[in-house]
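Structure ticket #2291
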Amino acid sequence: MNPFLGVIFHWLGGLASGSFYVPYRAVKKWSWETYWLVGGFFSWIICPIILASFLTKDLFGVLHQQSAATLWWTYFFGVLWGFGGLTFGLTMRYLGMSLGMGMALGYCAALGTLLPPIFKTFFPDIPVAENIQQIAATTPGQITLLGVFVCMIGIVVAAYAGLTKEREMTEADKTKVIKEFNFTKGFFVATFSGIMSACFSFALTAGVPIATASLAAGTDKIWTGLPKLIVVLLGGFTTNFVWCVLLNIKNRTAYQYLASEVRPEHAGLTVEGAKTDATDLKVPMLGNYLFSALAGTTWYFQFFFYTMGETKMGKYSFASWTLHMASIMIFSTMWGWLLHEWKGSSRKAHSLMAAGLATLVLSTVIIGAGAGWTDIVAFFKPH
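Resolution: structure written out below.
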């Protein structure tokens, strides 16, 4: 157990998650469903299997020995999370990186962090280290819960800053930066996305026996979360694959995976914020595949580092979800600034966002201190 190292790993995961959508902005003349599915193959299938194969022991033997119930619930919650991940991409399209992530992550952080230990209170067989009552009964647990609460405040402030910014911008300015901006549609999509995305936390909880078996097989503890990611992400892949294929059929865009030229009606396709020549039918195939692969691989590394951080948090691993959400919010907002999503907004909006980010950073410090409280006390105790 090393909670401070765990916080660093969660920050790295947040950096990956907050940055993954940036390479998609370089994709041209592909529909959303096309580049999302190409990137998804790397996110949900290729990267999980390759890295788990190299870094864990007897990967397929570990998966084979699991009960049908363990595999099913891990996969099932992954499918439900897939709906959140699917609509998360739509949230970015309609609200942009700063406001979209702020709204979706607010729901996701609250539900994904607190529901597993709360359920443990009523259903003792759920494989979570402690229930909410046990956590709240100790000083370290109280400090950790305080950090979770501070994180929620930070996300609310950051989301309000994003809403303030959107209210101040003209419709022309909004669509100039975010091509398909639609606050009403984005609000409902973000709400659904945040609630369903919290199922990832349940999927990781259901997959605890897989990590335990991997540890017994000789895997270093820091890598034991990788085998269960294969099952969880397979569930997410299922949801996204079905939806993207249906959109390919509906929008007649399935040809794009292999075509060197785009049809005239799709010539102006581009990811929001980028520019393209609608009269040019040539598709930059190599670039589109490379940037989609980069986006997908970057996305996967958020949970690669997440599982590493989770192993360092000990019995307070339930707080890992909060750390992850806070880190994503911090880095996605930074990208929003760099990509000029905040251009033209008032000092009030900038001040609110700065306050939100500062609160999120503070929450990660508090959570790390709570999880490592015993070590802190021991360090300052006279010998």
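Closing remark: The chain has a mean pLDDT of 78.
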